[in-house]
Structure formats: C-alpha cells, structure tokens
Design goal:
Layout: H1 11-39, E1 49-59, E2 62-72, E3 77-88, E4 93-108, E5 111-123, H2 129-138, E6 144-153, E7 156-161, E8 166-171
Antiparallel strand pairs: 1-2, 1-8, 2-3, 3-4, 4-5, 5-6, 6-7, 7-8
C-alpha cells in the first residue's frame, strides 16, 4: 500500500502563505532601512579645520583642474589658496591661475556661505589677456558663494555651488 501523503493547496492556504512571506519581507526591509540609516554618514556639523578640495571637468576643448587648500577657522573666517589649471585641448597650452582669498563663512544646516573680503589673482606668464579679463570681470571682493554640502563619509564632503560646480573635499 502506498502511504504517500498528497496535500492540495486551497486558495486560502496560498493567500495565508503569501501574507506570511510578505510580513517576513516587510520586517526584513524595515530592518535594512533602519540599519541603513544608522550606517549612512551624517553630515559633520563642524566643518572648521583644514580641507583639500578638487574638481575636474572638460567643457568643449578646455580641460579644467581645480584644487583648493582652505582653512575654515572656528571664529567664522577662512583663508583659501586655489590653483586652476586650464588646458586648451586644441593647442595643448596650459595656463595656471592662482587665487588667494579670505573672508567670512557661515554654515546653516547643509548650506555653507562664503563671503570674500580679500582676493588676489595671479596668472602664469603665458595666460592670454582674454583669460585675465574673464577673471577680472567675474571675481572680485564681496563676491558671495553659496554651497550645498553633502557628506560622502566622515572625512569627505561634496560641495555644490549654485552654478552647479561641484567639489570633492577631504578633511585634514
């Protein structure tokens, strides 16, 4: 005699099993979401200190490499030394622009506001007059830069200007 037990699933059984599976999945999803929130890097509230920032982009036939060395002091002022390397991809000519600036900074939530009090720009000898004019027209003391800050990890932030320019900054 064959003692095999055969079970027929009813629609109620299938529904009950699906509900149980969905409950298990929702608990798993909630657990992952909570643990994800715990391990997501929080934005460092205190940005005071030394930062190295950089960006690189290519616009038409021009490659731009930008490096900042900035110190945000606890008293609300900052000092920044910037180097911009501009390479004309058509001619392979590279021009350096050094920018020294200082001013005041203020952070509110994830927004950083920099107000330039003093600005000094120097160019490599081979820099064309047109390039010098662009900087003279665009950069001046009393310029205000507003950045959106986003934590990448505990020592790295991403700063995005209102213009869309983005810097990656490392503390230290």
């Amino acid at each position: 005699m064959n003692n095999q037990y055969k079970y027929q699933y009813t629609s109620t059984d299938v529904l009950a099993r699906n509900i149980k599976t969905m409950k298990s999945l929702s608990i798993l999803i909630a657990t992952l979401a909570i643990s994800g929130c715990v391990t997501t890097p929080k934005f460092e509230q205190d940005i005071s200190g030394q930062w190295q920032c950089s960006a690189e982009s290519t616009i038409e036939l021009v490659n731009l490499k930008y490096n900042d060395n900035v110190h945000y002091f606890e008293d609300g002022h900052y000092e920044k030394e910037s180097l911009l390397k501009i390479t004309n991809l058509d001619t392979d000519s590279t021009y350096d622009v050094n920018i020294l600036s200082n001013g005041k900074w203020m952070k509110r939530n994830a927004t950083l506001l920099e107000v330039i009090d003093k600005l000094e720009t120097t160019f490599s000898d081979n820099s064309p007059d047109e390039l010098r004019k662009v900087f003279a027209d665009e950069l001046s003391p009393t310029v205000t830069e507003k950045w959106k800050l986003k934590a990448v990890n505990e020592n790295t932030i991403s700063m995005t200007a209102e213009s869309g320019s983005q810097l990656s900054c490392k503390k230290g």
